[in-house]
Design brief:
heterodimer; A: mainly alpha; globular; B: mainly alpha; two-stranded antiparallel sheet; 11 helices
Chain lengths: ~270, ~260
């Protein structure tokens, strides 16, 4: 077990090293992503600038929501998104079979050898915006509130990673899975805005089947004392503990997918 | 011949029908989001800055239709791949112009996008929210013309960015950069009349305005008919300038190109 755990950091180091071979392109890519997310956030700012509020939220509050959304997504996706998005291609080409005969879990190898340091741009932007907005919003800061925010972000990262993993793992028995991601990212776009402005069926969807609402809206709304639809403050209290549920589900789903895997034939 | 390329692209897309549902879903979710945002900020007000909520909902549905009909990212990636893998040599050997070939095949993709994603998504959105008719039949006709121009300008930008990847080594960052620009200056999310000045005036004169803003603003009759003609000419000017840019860049890329291996 210990040797097993020692391998994981090595896999990450290998990955970082190979990415750094193209340092110029790497930095340019990160810069472009920071600009792109910056301008997506700027559209939210433009709306609030014109209308003063969006669903009862002021700009610093929305900035906190946006930064939490980006941080939760980036930390979860670094361990899942590109790895499992590309699983479909590996299944089609048959290269996934190689992972099955390695003396370690195929999941662990896939996740850590593909650990995506490309999300560093997201993290820089997210942390910067979060630090700024935390200074602007009115929250009674206690050790408990800080702990709550950190735990909620971790839980949100788990939700992200679990959902992205499950979507991709479908490739093992459906062969195609890529288009499922557009459904995820469609819903994810909505998490840039307060959940309370959306129609009831979207709110329900985002607090149950695709629990992205817990990714940023619920904890931030709870901290700021904003109303949370459907579950009210109970959702706020639950948000640090939500993450492990989809993770357990993702583990079961992965086991099932592996047991059903037959290769793409040919 | 180019018509055959367009047809073939259309048929290739037809083979991936399973993606239609997710495509449709994505398009609809974006419309739902935008309508929810405008409904929320309007609150009880019926008119803000001379624009009604009904007009904003129409704007959201139409802008989403225009921008979802065709994806520029696969084109940028495709050009980048063709240049780096040497696949481009196939096109150089054929008696066709590569940029024109791209235009033809992307028109096929656009036709597919309109048919399977835009028409159903727009119809569903209209059933749910309703939509205003064009301000007058003349504005409706202008809308169609502006839509064609919108596709041309976005296409030219995508080719320009794709070819630039030849020098910058990373198509990824160019794709994100174009997305960043379009988010604000394409007018798909927020019409420029809600921008603070002078940002609004600047945005109205950048070529990106013709991608999302003008077609929709024209449909709603936010320009006089004289202005419609004027801005159509200016937009065509931008398109011509971009086309020259593509021609020049393609020539330089071709001269720089060394296809290795046999």
């Amino acid at each position: 077990m210990q040797r097993y755990l020692e391998i994981l950091p090595l896999l990450i180091r290998l990955r970082v090293k190979s990415e750094m071979e193209y340092r110029g392109a790497y930095l340019l890519d990160r810069l472009a992503q920071i600009i792109a997310y910056g301008s997506a956030f700027a559209t939210v700012w433009l709306i609030v600038n014109r209308f003063a509020m969006l669903g009862g939220w002021r700009w610093p509050e929305l900035a906190l929501l946006l930064s939490a959304q980006l941080l939760a997504y980036a930390s979860g996706a670094a361990l899942s998104f590109t790895q499992f998005r590309d699983l479909e291609e590996q299944v089609r080409l048959g290269t996934f079979d190689v992972l099955l005969v390695k003396p370690m879990s195929a999941w662990a190898f896939q996740v850590f050898s593909g650990f995506n340091i490309g999300y560093s741009g997201h993290i820089i932007l997210g942390l910067g915006l979060m630090l700024w907005s935390l200074g602007q919003v009115e929250v009674h800061w206690t050790a408990f509130a800080v702990l709550y925010l950190v735990a909620s972000l971790l839980s949100a990262a788990m939700v992200t990673a679990a959902l992205l993993t499950m979507l991709g793992a479908n490739a093992l028995f459906l062969v195609r899975s890529r288009h499922l991601y557009s459904i995820y990212f469609g819903i994810w776009e909505l998490t840039r805005f307060p959940l309370s402005i959306f129609p009831g069926w979207i709110q329900t969807l985002m607090l149950t089947v695709l629990p992205l609402g817990f990714g940023s809206f619920v904890p931030v709304a709870y901290l700021l004392g904003k109303p949370i639809p459907i579950f009210g403050d109970w959702a706020g209290i639950a948000s640090p503990f939500v993450g492990p549920l989809p993770v357990l589900l993702a583990i079961a789903h992965w086991r099932y997918a592996i047991s059903k895997y037959q290769g793409a034939g040919g | 011949m180019y018509r055959a390329f367009a047809l073939s692209a259309f048929q290739t897309q037809l083979a991936y029908r399973s993606q239609v549902w997710s495509y449709l879903f994505f398009a609809l979710v974006i419309v739902v989001a935008k309508v929810a945002i405008w409904t929320s900020v309007y609150g009880n007000a019926s008119v803000i800055g001379g624009v009604t909520l009904k007009q904003m909902i129409t704007y959201a549905i139409l802008a989403a239709s225009i921008l979802n009909a065709w994806e520029y990212a696969p084109l940028i990636r495709g050009i980048d791949r063709a240049l780096k893998s040497g696949e481009i040599a196939i096109y150089l050997l054929r008696p066709v112009s590569y940029p024109l070939y791209l235009l033809a095949s992307q028109t096929g993709d656009l036709a597919y996008g309109v048919l399977v994603a835009v028409l159903p998504a727009t119809l569903i959105a209209i059933l749910i929210y309703g939509i205003l008719p064009p301000a007058s039949p003349a504005y409706g006709a202008f809308f169609v013309g502006y839509w064609v121009l919108s596709f041309l300008i976005l296409f030219l930008f995508a080719v320009l960015f794709g070819l630039a990847a030849f020098w910058l080594m990373t198509a990824f960052s160019l794709e994100w950069l174009l997305q960043a620009i379009l988010w604000i200056f394409g007018g798909g999310w927020i019409p420029f009349w809600f921008f603070p000045e002078p940002l609004g005036s600047i945005a109205r004169h950048l070529p990106f305005a013709w991608i999302g803003y003008y077609p929709t603003a024209v449909y709603l009759g936010k320009l006089t008919l004289e202005e419609c003609w004027l801005y159509l000419v200016v937009g065509c000017g931008w398109a011509a300038l971009l086309a020259i840019g593509v021609a020049l860049l393609w020539r330089r890329a071709r001269l720089r190109l060394v296809v290795q291996g046999g």
